[in-house]
Write a structure and sequence with these properties.
Bound molecules: 2-deoxy-2-amino glucitol-6-phosphate
Number of domains: 3
CATH topology of the largest domain: Glutamine Phosphoribosylpyrophosphate, subunit 1, domain 1
Structural class: alpha/beta
Strand content: 15-25%
CATH architecture of the largest domain: 4-Layer Sandwich
CATH class of the largest domain: Alpha Beta
Number of strands: 25
């Protein structure tokens, strides 16, 4: 993970770097640092912990900040070595001429380190990055040219990297390189930018060049040169960035997570727009590139994703099997990679990812691509690595999601999967397949934004429940059927931002082991939606109550006779079982949010996590 930034131009480099890093904090936030070039000198400032600590240090270095117009910066999510100041980037070589920031993992760093140590390099940190700094410096000793030194070094490095390097003897440039880690160059007038991601530079420019793997670039104030791995100068396409700076502001909300939860009704409208054109019309999904006859040949679907995106995929399994009648396997990407998966040209593989940069999912997709399966990618970042691997790219347009806890992107993924499932069915079986159940679901999708808004307007009950249960140490979430993934996602939301030990179970599994944990100190949250599993979940609630567990019901209906079972009830708007995951999840997101907020946790940047997990 980690975020990197570089600037060259006439602004104060420190200001651009700090502002950029603040927008990259979602990639890591355990330490940070910048290097400022002025004349032939470079000053490095680093701090452990959040970016504010670095900002405090820089307040005492105003003289340097005022005169430096070239610099590189980094925000870290530790992989090699503790999150200490010494391990924070930038890293330098022994003579301190070369300074480097890095995102990624150098797999052969031990091997390289031993060679470099034998040659006399002395290491200050435990990081793999410092190895790269010494290596590039060694190559500089042979070439006296930073571009050539970088080109030679990256050929010796195995693993993933995005690098930004500056050198005291070439003070008018930043040299960059990338492989399996994102890197974008922002183009300005008399200034240029480098970053791991667009939010870091969007306030300065809307034009950018995305570097491809194994390319090395020289970024100067008025020019950019990019070379491929054969040292050939290439012209990369200039792309226009899709985001507004306002999309990365809190807009008056206390946290990004709360803002993003509130954006969900609009997200649903966005995803449906142009695709769901009425309950009697077929779904339009031009982005899906298989023809009806090719769809008819699909014998299986594999959904690969991680975390919250995986939970969306689990809902997807339920609805694709129901409508398209194709068997679906859902698997965490990290598990998919290391076994002999069976896929062929009749397999539809769906990769789901908010960021489009999750390393496990990228690796799994690359692996299955070789088997000639059709790759559909559902992502919130149409500019991501995963998007570029897609045969069919289904962008979800939820807008930039800043909070580490995924909320609106999950909603967008769910809606995308509803559309895809109905689309596959309609393409496979023709318009006659649009039966009453499908029409009802389409109608419910159209009405979903107002249901979400109604829920958000009446959040005080959720707030009350959150306060009541905030001090419990453990939580169990149960549900069955299409809401089983909702239970998993609700538990994930709670644990990741409040650090409460929360686990989701299929309600029917409770009696096969987890019930042993139940007593008055273990609240059980049950998702109860009218439909095929309603009575079964209710029985599971009885079983939990009989073990003195505190019971919270999240439900669209409860008979008067059953109210006694529950300590607290959160009512959601009525609707079918099929649409209910998209309604229930809003309650679970809010509950997790209010508990974490009540406990005073760092909601948007929970400990040990990062938004974009770019390491396997
Ligand atoms: C969700 O709240 C988490 N932050 C995490 O599980 C996330 O969903 C996972 O890392 C996958 O990320 P992606 O969707 O960007 O691939």
């Amino acid at each position: 993970m980690c975020g990197i930034i570089g600037y060259i131009g006439s602004r104060k480099a420190s200001e651009v770097l700090i502002s950029g890093l603040s927008h990259l904090e979602y990639r890591g936030y355990d330490s940070s640092g910048i290097a400022l070039m002025h004349g032939n000198s470079v000053d490095v400032y680093k701090a452990q912990g959040k970016l504010v600590n670095l900002i405090e240090i820089l307040k005492t270095k105003q003289d340097i900040c005022d005169i430096s117009h070239i610099g590189i910066g980094h925000i870290r999510w530790a992989t090699h070595g503790l999150p200490t100041t010494v391990n924070a980037h930038p890293h330098t070589c022994n003579c301190k001429n070369l300074t480097l920031v890095h995102n990624g993992i150098i797999e052969n760093y031990q091997e390289l380190k031993e060679i470099l140590q034998k040659e006399g390099c002395i290491f200050q940190s435990q990081t793999d990055t410092e190895v790269a700094a010494h290596l590039i410096a060694r190559e500089y000793g042979k070439t006296n040219n930073l571009l050539k030194a970088m080109q030679s070094a990256v050929k010796q490095i195995k693993g993933a990297f995005a690098f930004c390097a500056i050198h005291k003897l070439e003070p008018d440039k930043i040299v960059v390189a990338k492989r399996n880690a994102p890197l974008v160059i922002g183009l300005g007038e008399g200034e240029n930018f480098v970053a791991s991601d667009i939010p870091a530079i969007i306030e300065y420019t809307k034009k950018a060049i995305y570097l491809s793997d194994n390319e090395v670039g020289v970024v100067e104030k008025n020019s950019i040169q990019i070379f491929d791995e054969n040292d050939k100068l290439i012209i990369n396409k200039v792309e226009y960035l899709p985001f507004e700076a306002v999309a990365i502001s809190k807009m008056g909300y206390k946290h990004f997570m709360l803002k993003e939860i509130h954006e969900q009704s609009d997200v649903v409208r966005n995803v449906l727009s142009g695709k769901l054109l009425g309950i009697n019309n077929e779904i339009k999904l031009e982005e899906f590139k298989l023809t009806p006859s090719e769809i008819n040949k699909i014998t299986r679907v594999q959904i690969i994703a991680c975390g919250t995106s995986l939970h969306a995929g689990m809902v997807g399994k339920y609805i694709i099997e129901k409508f398209a009648k194709i068997p679906v396997d859902v698997e965490p990407s990290s598990e998919y990679i290391y076994r002999d998966t069976i896929a062929d040209e009749n397999t539809l593989v769906i990769g789901i990812s908010q960021s489009g940069e999750t390393a496990d999912t990228i690796t799994a997709i690359k692996q299955v691509k070789e088997k000639k399966s059709h790759i559909a990618i559902i992502t919130n970042r149409a500019d991501s690595t995963m998007a570029r691997l897609a045969d069919s790219l289904l962008p979800v347009n939820a807008g930039i999601e800043v909070s580490v806890a995924a909320t609106k992107s999950y909603m967008a993924q769910l809606i995308s999967l509803y559309l895809l499932s109905i689309f596959l069915m309609e393409q496979k079986f023709g318009p006659s397949a649009i039966n009453d159940e499908v029409k009802t679901l389409k109608q419910e999708l159209i009405e979903l934004p107002s249901k979400i808004e109604a829920l958000l307007e009446n959040a005080s009950n959720i707030q009350r429940v959150a306060k009541k249960y905030a001090n419990y140490k453990d939580f169990i979430f149960i549900a069955r059927g299409i809401n089983y993934p909702s239970a998993l996602e609700g538990a994930l939301k709670l644990k990741e931002i409040s650090y409460i030990n929360a686990t989701g179970y299929g309600a029917g599994e409770l009696k096969h082991g987890p019930i042993a944990m139940l007593d008055e100190n273990m609240p059980v949250l049950a998702i109860l939606n009218t439909g095929i599993v309603y009575d079964k979940v209710l029985s599971n609630c009885e079983e939990a109550k009989a073990r003195q567990a505190k019971l919270i019901g999240v439900t669209n209906y409860i008979a008067d006779k059953d109210v006694r079972l529950f300590d607290d009830i959160i009512t959601v708007p009525s609707g079918s079982d099929l649409i209910s995951p998209a309604v229930n999840i809003v309650v679970l997101q809010l509950l997790a949010y209010y508990i974490a907020e009540y406990l005073g946790k760092d909601v948007d940047q929970p400990r040990n996590l990062a938004k974009s997990v770019t390491v396997e």
